[in-house]
Amino acid sequence: MVRQRRYSSGFLLAELSVLVGALILGCTEDRPQLPTQSPRADLLSSDALNVGHINQLLIALFPAGPLLDSARNQLNNIQPLLAQGDIPGAQSTALQLADFTIKGYRAGQLLDPNGTLPLTTPEAVVQLFDALLSFVGLPPSGLTSDGLGPTGPSGASDVFGALGGTLATVEGLAGLSVPPDAVSGVHLFLITRRDDLALQGTCLSTPLPQYPLCYDFFVFPKTSFSVPVTVVMCPLESVSHAEFYHRLVLAHPDPNDPNAIEFTMRAADPLGLVCTNAVLPPPGGLGDLLRRLGSFAARLILPTPLYATHGGMAGSVDSFSPFIAVDSAADLTVQSVTQTPGAPTAADVITVSAVILNNSSVPAGPFTVAFGADPVSAPMVSVPGLAGGASVPVSVTIGPRAA
Fold it and tell me: Measured in whole angstroms, how far is the alpha carbon of residue 134 from the centre of its chain?
């Protein structure tokens, strides 16, 4: 494995009793500004505070009518479950409401809570999500408005339990497959396309070449998977025809080392993605504007390269983070080193056993062997084609024997 270092202040506290909380539930037309300060804890129980805050967010985000009614009905279902001690049921219902909200956001159905003032719609969605998690005893999401992503078809969310499931973005350029028993209990899965990181070259912190598209995958509550989950995404259409395409593999930050990246184990695309439309719009260009508006018109207006159809690139993972394709050629790693004699000079042969750890193949050809020396002056050797997991001995002579 190669490791490369990568409320409105006018909110009336005296009125927020359980009785007035019920009146708020019955009011759909009044949309008070969102609170920026917490009410006094000595006047409210924790549950009443949470319900009041969540209701304000629902009223601010959802237009009056079926969407708001559905959201509030889901919230009303949580309290009886908590009262009965059914914590898993309450947590499942809260995650379903969060997913309902995110889906409404993606579809452009939510309101801007405060016009030109904070909170923005994505910020309010994240705040609502964390309030719901807190209400049912789950840890904060850690999600940001950037992580939530823009409205439109580039992202997706869904709730799965122990039976697992599959999820793909509306535009069909990324997805995931959760096998049975990968998670215990109900979890919310979220996929966000990160063109902002891809355009900046910061999807991963690594000197290795990165090849968009870049996607951030999330699971809430955050967890590691008992059975590997498959993530699949489209690299750019133009990249699929490059000579190095066979070396590309999905990578993400190493969950055990924040300064490293981890190659995924290659896997078959479980969703059968069609990646012909995988393009990265120029910053601030027409394509970027249309994507932010959630319009499929980008596919009709932007020129489409005349390439043959190619599928998605998939990898098996134990945890989620941002993913992007990288060139895996550097994943030919040194497994062992031997030399003769025991104290060799620069002219004695050193044998290196190189092994491929990420199940990618390496074609026959030259590569550089460098032992802390200037790579420019390091010797070149040739190796045969290698299958994933194979190893090969390579003998090199570092330099002329000293006189």
Answer: 22
Say if CB 204 and CB 322 are below 8 A apart. Answer: yes
Strands in 248-253's sheet, in edge-to-edge order, are 156-160, 187-193, 210-220, 322-327, 248-253, 261-263
CA 107/CA 23 separation, integer angstroms: 29
Beta-strand pair 265-267/365-368: unpaired
Burial class of residue 382 (count of CB atoms within 10 Å of its CB; 0-12, 13-18, 19+): exposed
How does strand 261-263 pair with strand 210-220?
unpaired
For 286, residues 6+ apart whose C-beta sits below 8 A from its C-beta are: 298, 301, 302
Instruction: List CB contacts of 234: < 8 A, sequence separation 6 or more.
Output: 173, 174, 213, 273, 275, 278, 312, 313
Q: Considering only CA atoms, which of 360, 368, 298 is closest in space to residue 325?
A: 360
CATH class of 153-330: mainly beta
Chain segment 332-363, per-residue pLDDT in tens: 454 555 555 555 555 555 555 555 444 444 44
**pTM for the complete prediction?**
0.70
The C-alpha atoms of residue 278 and residue 302 are separated, in whole angstroms, by: 12
3-state secondary structure of 351: strand
What 3-state class would DSSP assign to 268?
Answer: coil
As a whole number of angstroms, the distance between CA 87 and CA 78 comes to: 9
CATH 2.60.220.30 in the chain: give the residue spans: 153-330
Residue 333 main-chain phi, psi, to 5 deg = -105, 155
Bridge partners (DSSP) of residue 336 are 353
Per residue in 129-184, pLDDT (tens digit) is 999 999 999 999 999 999 999 999 999 999 999 999 999 999 999 999 999 999 99
For 142, phi and psi rounded to 5 degrees? 75, 0
> What integer pLDDT is reported at residue 392 of this predicted model?
53
Contacts of 160 (CB under 8 A, 6+ apart): 167, 178, 183, 186, 187, 189
Q: Which residue has the tokens 């309290």?
A: 79
Confidence band of 118 (pLDDT split at 50, 70, 90): confident
